[in-house]
Amino acid sequence: MIHAYLAEQVFAELDASDQQFLLDTALLPALDLDVLGAFDDAAVSRVARLRSQTSFITSDTETRFHYHELFRDFLEGRLRQSGVARFRQAAGAAAAILERSGNIESALGLYLQSQSWDEAVALLRAAGFQLVDADALATTEAAL
After folding, report:
1. 80, 98, 105, 127: which has the highest count of C-beta atoms within 10 A?
2. How many CB atoms lie within 10 A of CB 109?
3. pLDDT single digits (tens) 91-109
4. What is the DSSP letter of 121?
5. CA distance 85 to 90
6. Beta bridge partners of 67
7. Spatial distance between the Cα atoms of 94 and 101, rounded to a whole number of angstroms
């Protein structure tokens, strides 16, 4: 409960564009600056600024970060509260980023969550055997 309260206070203090960024990236397993930088020129500076303003973003490496689990849960909950269409848009965008970065299993999972059927089918056709070889049978089965 305390973490939820703090997350609300931290989130509420951020400007709208930072809040949007947090919600848009909430479903990503990690914030990989090499990947995000290719899609958003401001991502690198934004993550650095958000890290200095909050304690909810931690580093795995110099270019890879993740949200504290409780904060990520808060962000996902907030995203879901904003409506089905908004959640599907964020999940579809995150899936596209993951697909382009080569994280096929996570991308497929998010395409399924966002009900982006055409994208899921295309990815399954293109990388279905790769998923099976990687022992991602649960995700592959769910997609089928």
Report:
1. 98
2. 22
3. 988 998 888 888 888 888 8
4. H
5. 9
6. 57
7. 11
